[in-house]
C-alpha cells in the first residue's frame, strides 16, 4: 500500500468516526436552560470539538491499524469475502 492510498483510507475512516463521535456528550441550550436569543434552541452549548477531534483521531488510528494488519500483514482483501449471491453463469 503506497502512502497516498494509506492517507486516503485513513481520511475516510477519520470522517466516518468523526460523524459517529459528534453527538457524544452534547447538551442543547434547552437542556442547560441557557437559550441565547436569535439562536436555535437545539444548538449545543459546549460542543467540545477539540476533544472530539482528538478522540476521533485516536479511534481512527486504531481502526486504520487493524485495517493495515488485516490487508497488508495478513494479506486479506476484498476478493477474500465470500459470495452472498451465487453466480448464474
Keywords:
89 residues, mainly alpha, 2 helices, 49% helix, 0% strand
Q: Mean pLDDT, rounded to whole units?
A: 90
The oligomerization state is single chain
What is the CA-atom radius of gyration, in angstroms?
20 Å
Morphology: elongated
- The residue fraction in helices comes out at 40-55%
Helix and strand content put the structural class at mainly alpha
Contiguous runs where pLDDT drops below 50 for at least 5 residues: none
Biggest pleated-sheet summary = none
Q: End-to-end distance, in Å? A: 33 Å
Q: How many distinct beta strands?
A: 0
**Count of helical stretches:** 2
Overall tally of structural domains: 1
Strand content: under 5%
The ordered H/E elements are HH
Transmembrane segments: 6-26, 54-78
Keywords: Membrane, Transmembrane, Transmembrane helix
InterPro entries: DUF1467
Protein name: DUF1467 family protein
Amino acid at each position: 500500500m503506497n502512502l497516498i492510498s494509506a492517507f486516503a483510507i485513513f481520511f475516510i475512516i477519520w470522517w466516518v468516526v468523526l460523524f459517529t463521535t459528534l453527538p457524544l456528550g452534547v447538551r442543547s441550550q434547552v437542556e442547560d436552560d441557557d437559550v441565547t436569543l436569535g439562536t436555535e434552541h437545539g444548538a449545543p452549548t459546549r460542543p467540545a470539538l477539540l476533544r472530539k477531534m482528538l478522540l476521533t483521531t485516536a479511534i481512527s488510528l486504531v481502526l486504520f491499524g487493524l485495517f493495515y494488519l488485516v490487508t497488508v500483514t495478513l494479506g486479506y482483501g476484498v476478493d477474500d469475502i465470500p459470495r452472498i449471491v451465487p453466480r448464474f453463469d
